[in-house]
Amino acid sequence: MPVILALTQAHDAIWALGPEGLFTVDRGNLTAVPQPDAQPACCYHDGERLFVGGATYGLAYTTPDGGWQASWLDGVTAPVVCLAADPDHQHNGVLLAGTAGGGVLRSVNHGRHWSVCNFGLFDFEVLSLAWAPVQPAGAWPPVQVVFAGALGGVYRSPNGGRGWKQVATMPAPVLTLAVAPDFHAGGAVLAGTEGGGLWRSDDGGYSFAPVAGAPEVVNALLALPGGGWLLSDAERIWRSADGHAWTPLDLPPALTFLATERGVLAGGMDGVFGVA
């Protein structure tokens, strides 16, 4: 089975992507789909088109005739390694892309064109991105919070990725981020690192502290829609009700998670599998 680095869903279809290419997923079975990147690293479907990021083309998206179109990336040639959509992107068209050397790219037209948005960013190796949920109506001041994980720590943006401020310095690259569904009430954010452990914020992502007893290597995180968290290290998947105490599950490790209406899917070294 191929290694899977990213999962995405639109309508009833699920796609998986890894170094060996792009696949559709049907009950754990993978069917290869042609895609243009020589070194694919991430994928995302916005409901209308499928995006693939990596090296060679940076970012490409599907066209109505079944082909692929390269996105204009504001002169950035670094590989695109992560993608994240504003939770209100169907209306505002905002998508973010993290690159391995070019910082953050931002699109306001559903991914057709991108602009560099590195104001306040001092580390241009952006390995992970995660948006907070849409702010409750009437809340003040209005914010669009999004987080970026880089080689040296976590950055926070209050304005949808237009500007950034480093909120935590960490001893290892930040591979994955997850924001609680009740973020605007509880303020919880988790950051997983490659050898520096799990870090947590309870103040809306303004500061982070290490989580005692959590795995040192955190390759994937998921904030469950109904509450609770999933984490994967290099050996297995872990579950937590509160993000502090973690219980190992009898499941192989994962490199990515996807929450669907039918449950959680995980992608890893041996393809795609379900997480009970």
Major β-sheet profile: 4 strands, antiparallel
End-to-end separation: 21 Å
What is the total number of structural domains? 1
Work out the helicity level: under 10%
Question: What is the CATH third-level topology name?
Answer: Methylamine Dehydrogenase, Chain H
Tell the overall outline. Answer: globular
Strand-and-helix sequence, N→C?
Answer: EEEEEEEEEHEEEEEEEEHEEEEEEEEEE
Average predicted local confidence, pLDDT: 96
CATH class: Mainly Beta
Question: How does this model look, in words?
Answer:
This protein is an all-beta fold and 276 residues long. Helices cover 3% and strands 46% of the residues. It has helices at 89-92, 183-186; strands at residues 6-10, 13-18, 21-26, 29-33, 39-45, 50-55, 59-62, 68-70, 80-85, 95-99, 104-107, 115-116, 126-131, 146-150, 153-157, 165-169, 174-179, 189-193, 198-201, 209-210, 220-223, 229-232, 237-240, 247-248, 256-260, 263-268, 271-275. The strands form seven sheets. It has a four-stranded antiparallel sheet, with no helix packed on it. A hairpin with a 4-residue loop joins strand 18 and strand 19.
Brief digest:
With 276 residues, the chain is mostly beta strands.
Descriptive tags:
about 280 residues, mainly beta, Methylamine Dehydrogenase, Chain H, four-stranded antiparallel beta sheet, about 45% strand
